[in-house]
Amino acid sequence: MPILEVESLSVSFKQYKAGFKQVQNQVISNLSITLNAGEILAVVGASGSGKSLLAHAILGILPSNARTSGIIKYAGEILTHARQEALRGKEIALVPQSVNFLDPLMRVGKQVRTSVKSGDAAALQRRVFERYHLRKEVDNMYPFQLSGGMARRALLSTAMVSGAKVIIADEPTPGLDPVVIKEALNNFREFADNGCAVMLITHDIESALKIADKIAVFYAGTTVEIARVENFSGHGEALRHPYTKALWRALPQNDFIPIPGSQPHPSELPTGCLFAPRCSLATSECQVVQPDIRELRDGMVRCIHAN
Asked: What is the pTM of this model?
């Protein structure tokens, strides 16, 4: 049984335009993923594709003007708001994208120690600080005294000592030096190898491929493909979705071919397949309705032309 399941998740935000005219912007639609114990699932996609919103929806920390539909399950049970509150920071831990998640009024060492649920909190905090090259004096510093890289390492430390069964890491490595990046990625792999689960949200496909088991590719708020890391090789022949193939071939080490056009804004989503306006394979059928995600060649894809 997957430890975390997201089925047909949709998230929209209520906004006002032209005075008091109320509109709903659909930012996530029909998004589905599963995460198994012992697995690292890397979630990749352009900015605005819904990666961070997925993390916040799982944890129940979306803003008050958000409306959601779909089902999120943890260990086979539906995540109600009350259950999200009970699990957050305990069995499901977040490494957030923004360092503003650190409490500005609490010393950094104490913040990390409060995340420890069992064992010697002080010893665990010292050990994780050593792993992430944080000096002893950081223990008594406040967040405003830290550099951006130090703050990110403090956030990583908080998640790693929590004893959580699931870690959701939202862009955890920007601003870190290569040595710390390697250490953090190795820690995520070790965490999964010990039977827990990691969702790694990132723009960095190269780093994800070094440690992940599967890659989930997001586009305009939905999952377009889920593939094993071995599929990301050569010219992308083993990949299923046109966007995933184009994303892979756009990397500098591959063909470095840019993808024409741009991802649509949530207020201007096309009918039918969301990638159709940029897709060379698009037909009139693609304009009618968004394809369902389906199994194909030991992966998942949302495209009627994939074979």
From this structure: 0.91
